[in-house]
Design the sequence.
């Protein structure tokens, strides 16, 4: 494991150098391309080390289970730049992806305490479990890719030049922590790929109808969007004083809107207006009144859809 951490540290160092070059507007240079070539080599070494260390699916599972989940990094932690454990989180994310696609690991998760072996039932449940988890991974990737596509617009907008350093750091952290996103960027010379709904393709491959996919997608993303709306509307004042963080939260909410049907967005919009017009909200002096930013996110949906073409 120590050797793997060293490899991940070297990959992290390459990311840092790439970040610094792009920050200096030197992305289209030979130096940046050379770093990309080094990254490809380092990722090959990384993959071979994973294969050497985790030949048995249960070994990867043991690491995932033993890992302190409190050290995990979600988007909110990335926004607040609480990314001290980036290398370990990269390992954790990589092994988690590996675990849920490994039948031996899944069997241990589902049937470790089962004395009798129901072979056909096991096979069916394992297939259902891995299908659901892989679908969730695809949905997660779609959300992050749409977030990055909107973020790219801000990075190229001179009106936000004072925040570019922090926004660019978020971009590189997200790519580093998600290998499936990393692969998409590597295939495109680390330029923002066209966002596509990989979850829709996966759903069709496992036999989910188009209507069924839309229902699942809307259910999952609307729940996340509702949580984000509540977080933005009901938050203590001191938690929302950082302009950069507020920009990133708004981008995240708008990226979620890009995944939703108009009918779902209309329901969310109506709920928000009902809330901000209520006495409970109006008379609450402990929260930062954030409704203008939230309403702005709804108003920008049409323009966002024009700027960020979603391919499926």
Sequence:
């Amino acid at each position: 494991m120590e050797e793997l951490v060293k490899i991940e540290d070297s990959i992290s160092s390459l990311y840092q150098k790439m970040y610094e070059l792009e920050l200096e507007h030197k992305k289209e240079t030979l130096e940046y391309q050379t770093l990309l070539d080094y990254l490809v080599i380092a990722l090959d070494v990384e993959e071979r080390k994973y294969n050497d260390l985790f030949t048995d699916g249960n070994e990867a599972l043991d690491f995932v289970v033993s890992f302190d989940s409190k050290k995990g990094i979600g988007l909110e932690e990335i926004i607040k730049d609480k990314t001290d454990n980036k290398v370990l989180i990269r390992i954790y994310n990589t092994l988690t992806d590996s675990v849920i696609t490994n039948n031996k690991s899944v069997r241990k998760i589902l049937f470790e305490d089962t004395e009798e072996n129901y072979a056909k039932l096991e096979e069916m449940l394992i297939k259902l479990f891995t299908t659901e988890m892989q679908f969730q991974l695809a949905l997660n990737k779609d959300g992050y890719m749409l977030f990055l596509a909107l973020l790219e617009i801000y990075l190229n907008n001179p009106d936000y030049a004072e925040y570019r350093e922090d926004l660019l750091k978020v971009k590189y952290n997200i790519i580093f922590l998600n290998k499936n996103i990393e692969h998409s960027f590597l295939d495109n010379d680390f330029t923002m790929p066209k966002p596509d709904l990989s979850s829709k393709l996966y759903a069709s491959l496992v036999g989910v109808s188009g209507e069924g996919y839309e229902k699942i997608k809307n259910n999952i993303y609307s729940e996340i969007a509702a949580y984000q709306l509540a977080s933005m509307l009901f938050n203590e004042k001191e938690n929302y004083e950082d302009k950069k963080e507020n920009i990133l939260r708004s981008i995240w909410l708008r990226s979620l809107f890009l995944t939703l049907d108009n009918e779902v967005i209309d329901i969310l919009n109506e709920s928000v207006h009902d809330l901000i017009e209520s006495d409970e909200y109006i008379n609450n002096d402990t929260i930062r009144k954030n409704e203008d930013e939230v309403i702005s996110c709804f108003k920008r949906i049409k323009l966002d859809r024009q700027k960020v073409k979603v391919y499926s």
Notes: The CA atoms of residues 11 and 245 lie 26 Å apart. The mean pLDDT is 82.
